[in-house]
Structure formats: structure tokens, C-alpha cells
Design a protein that fits this description.
This is Extracellular solute-binding protein. The longest helix is centred in the N-terminal third of the chain and has 20 residues. By secondary structure, the protein is of the alpha/beta class.
């Protein structure tokens, strides 16, 4: 088409296209299962640009008359329009890369033309309050949710999330934290991806310095010794041997778990955390011995990933989710179990889907949950990302990958007995945040051991009796 047309003329032509196609479909000129003429032919026939035709056809998609099939065409699926169900799904932004979430949504819509998904990006901060408000006001039908954010709901999850049946194909240890109190065969959240925290290391740095690769027998002192040798060999300013974001709730609790730290409350609510100081002193030692200034300079786990891909850090604590970012850069890397203190423990990260108990579209929302946890969809996550699918037989399958996976990718199968949740510390999200505030000051060398422990004891001690505390494990 040459020349420009006025807005009014454009509307007339676009309306003529849609009216004609609706009539032709309803009268059977284009039967169910058949394809419309190509967008190019329609553009020439109705005097529109190809892009205008494509946008116009989206309206027929929303009416349920046709469905777009990539690289094939526009197929007629009904002779009569219908009211499409609009499903509002909240999601973590990182899932666009970590679980090809947008691609999965598009596939679901193609397979379920009567449902259109409207995505709403959710904040990482203040997640619980945002989601609860949205759900109670019927602004969300389903959400992606990790175990930490789920725990923030305390007992409120019963009033927010709709129970659903367990999926027997999913690893049991992923579903147990989300079990309903009444029925062990029901959960409030259906897991679909997970990851332990592991050690990610630069193979070239280890090879060049003549140091053996990390293994499952490493303790933190050995890791710190290797870090020092790597830094001495490099001699490049601004590099470090071992790094992690010390204030991340997915990092520092691991040191406590490995040191068998757990909050113990007396009958009058006084708290004791044996081994706490030893654990946090190790965190400080890791940074002090490398001469790394950790105070307030690291904002998130992404800082560690950036240092690693820039080859400024030889080792980092990482999740499989983070590997999706690392794998897109030219760095030779592999993974190993975390070094440990007393016990070889690591933190388990779980992401699942929950359905809004107040939604009027629970059936459609549940169908989306079933789709995401289906073997076919889980297979797509497996071959297109480094995130670990929740379905066991898919997670442990090999072959057909579209992304590079490190040689030790499947070590997660061997370290399952080391998986822990931060609630194993006997603390909940609010209490962990209190501890984190004090840890920030302590790691900045602004208070000594005695003051730190006194402040922790004061902030975590309960005036009420132990019996009045929340029941562990989400019950």
C-alpha cells in the first residue's frame, strides 16, 4: 500500500475487514479448521498494511473465532464469537528468563483459546501485602510464589489460597512445605521449579592457578584458602577469590544451618541461639581475609553474578536460577556443593503457583496451574533453561537441551539430603529480617560480639509463652 490514509479512513477499512471476516466465518465460507488467507493477501484486498491486518486479527482472536499458529497462519476455531475468560496472573519478573514464563503463557493461550492471560509483575519487596490486597479485591486469579513469600502470610494463607491436590509426579520434598493442615494430599502451592544454593566456580581461574576443582568434601576454611591462592595468582586489582551477597536471606542463613543453629525459646519466651556468633564470624572472616569491603556496597545477589561474569570473582554462592544469567556470558564455569561447617547443608529455593481463594475464575486458574506443572511444559523448562523442573522424571532427564549445562549440573540429585528451609532455624520471615538488620551493622564492624548477641536476644525474645508462638512448617 502506498501513501498515507487518514485516521477515519483507516478505521473504516479496518472495520470493513473485521465485519467481512466475521460474516464469512459465521456463514461457513471459512469453515472451522480452515485457515484465513495470508495477512499479506488480506492487506492487499482491504487496502491496509500487513501490521494493521495483524492487529485487526487480534480482535478475532479475542472473540474466539480464530487462533494464531506461529509460522502457519490464522485458523478458524469457531463460527460464533464468545466471551473470553481473562485470567490475571501475578509473576516474579525473573521468571521471564528463569522459566521462559511468557513463552509458556503464549503456549497455554494457543491450547486454550477461550482463556486470555493478563500478566501482572509483582514486587520482590512487600510481596505479601501486595498479593493479599490484590487477591482480596479479586485483582489476581493466580500468582507465582516462593517458599519465603508464602511463609510471610503466616496463617493467613488459609484465607488467601485455594487448596489443590498434590501432583504425584512432583518431588515430595517440594510439596511438603505447602501442605494444608487438614489434608496431607492437598497443598496451597503447586511447585514448578526449584534450586539449591551451590558453589559456582571459574574453571579457567582454577586451571591457571593449578588448584583442584571444589568437591563435596570442602569446608569453608579450604574454600577460603583456595580463594587466597586464586587472588595471589591473579594479582589483578579489584578481584576476589570467593564472593556472595552477605545480607541475602538466601545466603547468610546457610551458615547458621550448617552450624546447627536453631532458635530455642524458654517457657518465658527468652531466646537462645547457640552457635550464632561462630556462624556470623565466619561470614565476616571470609570478607576480612580477602580484604573485600562488603559494607553496604552489595545490594543483591546480582552483584555477585556480575562480578563472576566479569571474571572479577573466581567463586560465588549461586542458585540454578542465577545460572541462566551466567550461561549467557562467555565464562567457563561449573558447580559444586557448598563448602560446609559442621553439616553439609544448603538452602532450598522453591517457586510454585497458587490460586486465589476469592477468584471467580478458579477453574481456569487451576487449568493454568495444571498446564505449568504438566510433563510437556516442564520439559520445555528443562530444555530451554537451567532452572530445575519440579517434576522428578523430567528434572532427571538428559538430551535435547537448547542451552549449555555445566558438567556437574545433575549434582542436585546427589545433595537432596542436604536441602534445608530457612524455617529450620526456628525463625520466621519477620524474625529473620530482624536478625538481618543487626547482621548488617555487625558485619560493618559497628558493634562487637557481645552487643550483637544482646540485641538479637532482646529483639527475638517473646513476652508470651512458647505455646503462643506460631506452629512451625506453615501448619
Amino acid at each position: 500500500m502506498s501513501g498515507k490514509i487518514s485516521r477515519e479512513e483507516f478505521k473504516v477499512k479496518l472495520n470493513h475487514l473485521l465485519t467481512s471476516l466475521r460474516k464469512q466465518i459465521s456463514e461457513g465460507e471459512y469453515k472451522v479448521g480452515e485457515y484465513l488467507p495470508s495477512e499479506l493477501i488480506l492487506a492487499e484486498q482491504y487496502g491496509l498494511s500487513k501490521n494493521s491486518v495483524r492487529k485487526g486479527l487480534e480482535e478475532l482472536v479475542s472473540e474466539g473465532l480464530i487462533v494464531k499458529k506461529s509460522r502457519i497462519g490464522n485458523q478458524v476455531i469457531s463460527s460464533q464469537p464468545f466471551d473470553q475468560t481473562i485470567l490475571r496472573v501475578g509473576y516474579y519478573p525473573n521468571l521471564l528468563k528463569d522459566a521462559v514464563f511468557q513463552k509458556l503463557i503464549k503456549q497455554f493461550e494457543e491450547e486454550n483459546p477461550s482463556v486470555k492471560i493478563q500478566t501482572i509483575s509483582l514486587p520482590y519487596d512487600h510481596y505479601q501485602q501486595t498479593v493479599q490486597d490484590f487477591m482480596e479485591n479479586e485483582m489476581l486469579d493466580a500468582v507465582t510464589i516462593n517458599y519465603k513469600d508464602y511463609s510471610d502470610f503466616d496463617t493467613e494463607f488459609r484465607n488467601v489460597f485455594e487448596p489443590m491436590n498434590k501432583n504425584d509426579s512432583i518431588y515430595p520434598f517440594l510439596q511438603k512445605p505447602f501442605e494444608t493442615r487438614e489434608y496431607q494430599d492437598e497443598v496451597y502451592v503447586r511447585p514448578f521449579v526449584f534450586s539449591p544454593i551451590v558453589l559456582c566456580y571459574n574453571k579457567d581461574h582454577f586451571d591457571a592457578s593449578g588448584i583442584s576443582y571444589p568437591d563435596s568434601g570442602w569446608k569453608w576454611d579450604e574454600a577460603l584458602s583456595a580463594a587466597g591462592r586464586l587472588m595471589n595468582f591473579s594479582k589483578e586489582e579489584g578481584t576476589c577469590g570467593l564472593y556472595f551477597h552477605p545480607l541475602s536471606l538466601n545466603r547468610w542463613p546457610i551458615f547458621l544451618l550448617q552450624n546447627r543453629v536453631a532458635a530455642e525459646y524458654s517457657a518465658d519466651g527468652e531466646v537462645a541461639m547457640n552457635g550464632l556468633l561462630e556462624s556470623v564470624n565466619l561470614i565476616r572472616k571470609i570478607f576480612d581475609e580477602q580484604g573485600i569491603m562488603q559494607t553496604f556496597l552489595s545490594d543483591s545477589n546480582k552483584d555477585a553474578e556480575t562480578l563472576f561474569v566479569d571474571q572479577k570473582a573466581s567463586m560465588i554462592m549461586s542458585s540454578y536460577f542465577s545460572l541462566n544469567e551466567i550461561a549467557s556470558h562467555e565464562v567457563s564455569y561449573d558447580i559444586a556443593p557448598l563448602p560446609y561447617l559442621k553439616d553439609p547443608k544448603t538452602l532450598l529455593l522453591i517457586i510454585g503457583l497458587a490460586v486465589n481463594k476469592h477468584s471467580k475464575k478458579k477453574k481456569a486458574a487451576q487449568s493454568f496451574v495444571d498446564f505449568i506443572s504438566s510433563e510437556e511444559t516442564q520439559e520445555r523448562i528443562r530444555i530451554e533453561t537451567l532452572s530445575i523442573p519440579a517434576v522428578k522424571k523430567v528434572a532427571e532427564r538428559q538430551g535435547g537441551e537448547k542451552v549449555y549445562k555445566p558438567s556437574r549440573y545433575f549434582l542436585f540429585r546427589e545433595i537432596i539430603p542436604t536441602f534445608s528451609l530457612y524455617t529450620d532455624l526456628g525463625l520466621y520471615s519477620k524474625e529473620l529480617n530482624e536478625l538481618r538488620k543487626e547482621l548488617r551493622i555487625y558485619l560493618s564492624d559497628l558493634m562487637d560480639d557481645k552487643i550483637f548477641y544482646q540485641r538479637i536476644s532482646k529483639n527475638l525474645s517473646k513476652k508470651d509463652s512458647v505455646d503462643s508462638r506460631r506452629i512451625k512448617g506453615g501448619e
